[in-house]
UniProtKB/TrEMBL annotation:
Gene Ontology biological process terms, A to Z: methylation
UniProt name for this protein: 3-demethylubiquinone-9 3-methyltransferase
Keywords in alphabetical order: Methyltransferase, Transferase, Ubiquinone
Listed Gene3D superfamilies: 2,3-Dihydroxybiphenyl 1,2-Dioxygenase, domain 1
Domain spans labelled Glyoxalase/fosfomycin resistance/dioxygenase: 10-130
Gene Ontology molecular-function annotations: methyltransferase activity
Record-linked InterPro entries: Glyas_Bleomycin-R_OHBP_Dase, Glyas_Fos-R_dOase_dom, PhnB-like
Organism expressing this protein natively: Streptomyces caelestis
Length: 137
C-alpha cells in the first residue's frame, strides 16, 4: 500500500453530523469510532467522535473527529494533514523532517488502537499527523 496524504478535520462536538453530511454529499463508506468505544469516555465525550473516515465513491478520502478533551476549538485549528501507510521507514523519515524545527503534540509511538501515530506542527505552522498502519489493522 502506498502512503496517503489525507485532510483531517476537527469539529466542536458535531463531527458525527458533519461527517454524515459529507457522506450524503460525496457517497461512500463512513466509519465512526467514539471515545467510549476506546474506553476514553468522560462525562461529556462518550458519544463524541474520536476518529471518523469517509472513503468516497469518487476515490478520495478524508477524516475527522471532535476536538479531544482539553483542546479548545477555534477557527484555524480545525484541520491537519495526515500522512499514513505501511512503509514505516518512509513515514518515520517524513515525521523527522516535519517535526524538525516545529513542535510535537503527540510523540510518534504506538497508540491504543495498535498503530504508530504522532502529531506535530511544522516550522511554518501547518499541523501534521503521521500514522504507520500495523499489519492486521
Amino acid at each position: 500500500m502506498a502512503s496517503l496524504l489525507t485532510p483531517y478535520l476537527s469539529f466542536d462536538g458535531n463531527a458525527r453530523q458533519a461527517l454524515e453530511f459529507y457522506k450524503e454529499v460525496f457517497g461512500g463508506e463512513l466509519r465512526l469510532t467514539t471515545y467510549g468505544d476506546f474506553g476514553r469516555a468522560g462525562a461529556d465525550n462518550t458519544d463524541k467522535i474520536m476518529h471518523g473516515m469517509l472513503a468516497s465513491t469518487a476515490g478520495f478520502t478524508f477524516m475527522g473527529a471532535d476536538m479531544p478533551p482539553g483542546m479548545g476549538y477555534a477557527p484555524g485549528n480545525n484541520f491537519a494533514v495526515c500522512v499514513s501507510g505501511e512503509d514505516g521507514s518512509a513515514l518515520r523519515g517524513y515525521w523527522e523532517k516535519l517535526s524538525g524545527g516545529g513542535s510535537v503534540a503527540v510523540p510518534l509511538e504506538k497508540q491504543m488502537w495498535g498503530d504508530v501515530f504522532g502529531m506535530c506542527t511544522d516550522r511554518f505552522g501547518v499541523p501534521w499527523m503521521v500514522n504507520i498502519n500495523q499489519p492486521g489493522g
